[in-house]
Specification:
The protein has helices at residues 5-8, 15-20, 22-33, 38-47, 58-65, 106-118; strands at residues 73-76, 79-82, 87-88, 91-92. By secondary structure, it is mainly α. The chain has a two-stranded antiparallel sheet. Strands 3-4 form a two-stranded antiparallel sheet.
């Protein structure tokens, strides 16, 4: 980020230091990153061996994935979902079950929760 003095700053030297000073660190990083495009930061990070990519909205993710060989949308039991962003060889990564309906597993979750609280 072209600020090597941050690495020497006692407020950010260790992870506990960075956590303690998170608000200030967040602000100075924000002040720097806002002056470049996302694509610039992705390129800079990748050049330094840091895996990176933009955070996309759902419509952006769908539009981006549509340029790839596999569909960005999978439909399972009538429920459309965003497909996983990677493929293994020639096999597309697809979910095996649909997401639960709101409240579908509430009773089982509560029973498990109470059994764990009560102990053996």
């Amino acid at each position: 980020m072209e600020h090597p003095m941050w690495a020497k700053d006692i407020r950010y030297r260790t992870n506990p230091d960075r956590v303690k000073n998170r608000g200030r660190l967040h602000q100075i990083i924000q002040d720097v990153i806002q002056h470049r495009r996302v694509s610039d930061w992705v390129a800079i990070l990748e050049d330094h061996g840091v895996p990176a990519g933009p955070v996309r909205t759902v419509p952006e993710a769908v539009a981006w994935r549509e340029s790839l060989p596999h569909s960005p949308i999978s439909v399972l039991e009538g429920v459309p979902q965003i497909a996983l962003p990677w493929d293994f060889s020639d096999t597309q990564s697809l979910p095996r079950t649909r997401p639960p309906q709101l409240g579908e597993h509430t009773e089982e979750v509560w029973m498990l929760y109470h059994s764990l609280r009560e102990g053996p």
